[in-house]
Amino acid sequence: MAKILIVEDNDMNLDMLSRRLQRKGYETASARDGQAGVEQALSDKPDLILMDMSLPVIDGWEATRQIKANPDTKTIPVVALTAHAMQSDRDKAMEAGCDEFYTKPIELPGLLEIIKKLLDG
């Protein structure tokens, strides 16, 4: 069973994503800010990270940079989750090291397709 780390500060989004992913057979872990997300990625070594970009402490862009700069976590796929849908936002996320970009509101079938693609390599 693949483990997905959800880094999200909105309780409703976190709860909804966790429950829906667990129903699809994924194990989930969570962090509520960017720094906690980096620390959790290092300790848990999840198979994939769903990273909100607008986070407290450090934002999702910086958290992704730190995760991708660390040899122990650099190969973990990171999916940017954001309400910012402009091409410049996508470019910024990809430059930070995100492997994919998905805009909110989240439609589960589309997100599951991205998760499956990244986990299957």
TrEMBL record:
Biological process annotations from GO: phosphorelay signal transduction system
Q: PROSITE patterns, alphabetically?
A: RESPONSE_REGULATORY (PS50110)
Q: 4-aspartylphosphate (modified residue): where?
A: 52
Matching InterPro entries, A to Z?
Answer: CheY-like_superfamily, Sig_transdc_resp-reg_receiver
One Pfam family hit: Response_reg
Q: Which UniProt keywords apply?
A: Phosphoprotein, Two-component regulatory system
* Domain (Response regulatory) ranges: 3-119
Q: What is this protein called?
A: Polar-differentiation response regulator DivK
